[in-house]
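Late entry, written up from scratch paper. The run itself happened at the end of the previous shift, but nothing got recorded in the book at the time, so transcribing now.
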Amino acid sequence: MTYRITHVGFADESNWNIGRFRSLGLVTLPIEYLGGLEDELWALLKDSKVREFKWKKLRGAKERFAAVKMCGFAVKHASARRLRIDVLVWDVQDKRHNIRGRDDIANLQRMYYHLFRNVLRARWPNDAVWRLHPDENSAMDWKTVEDCLDSVSVTTEVECSLFTGGRFCHRLRREFGIEEICPVSSADNPLLQLADLFAGLAVFSRDKFDEYQKWLETMSPQQSLFGQAEVLKDLSRSSRERFQVLKEFDGLCKKRKLGVSLKTEGGLRTFQPSNPINFWMYVSQHPQDRAPVRSADEREND
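Output as recorded:
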């Protein structure tokens, strides 16, 4: 049996296998708003002369202008409850992840599970029926998951293992109401580009927080020109452009009272997860919660 899709989600990853901080970004919305929001985002990107926004390509003014406009778009529509933006961040230097032979792909799958659990049912109606659009270039093998989702009966009794073959897919449908998984191209889907922006911004805000604070000080009228020059000479052009986006976004969130903090934890964080723009750090769920590891054979083949 198939059901009428009521909600859609766009999911993207940032730095899933490099650097200290990794993230997943998820943009979710009722399907009734999809066409209008996409049209507005396309017009915004066209006005910025950007065909496809990617965080990793934000190195100049053109991309910065587009990113700031996208932040404004997100804050406006999130405040009006037309969409949500949720970003899950994890730290590979914490006790859960800092282990030998960590399997980053298997860990990514677990992070998707936690993201879905905390958004699709917890933040939207319990009877929502979802179509999920991950990036077609995702590290996850969504095509296999999609095929599996099609073949698993919702009445089949399965054990509680989350990540073994069809059981993961079964839980996607049973627990979260995901009826379809359709990997798509970022170039053709502006809301996927929005997920990319916020996944990248979340990681950047933690990776570069100390440098950002120093850069902010250079913006102060009390800072001497010599002091400004000393700070700026050590910053790359891309960092300076991205700092401006982070500053603009932080200001927009404060103006709308969205509860997004930047300074408290040295990076973007929302302390009330029901807020429509939600950044959160993954923490171990129990003492035995450890990142998955690769088999001995896989480690030998590295």
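The first strand starts at residue 7 and ends at 14.
(Scratch paper discarded after transcription.)
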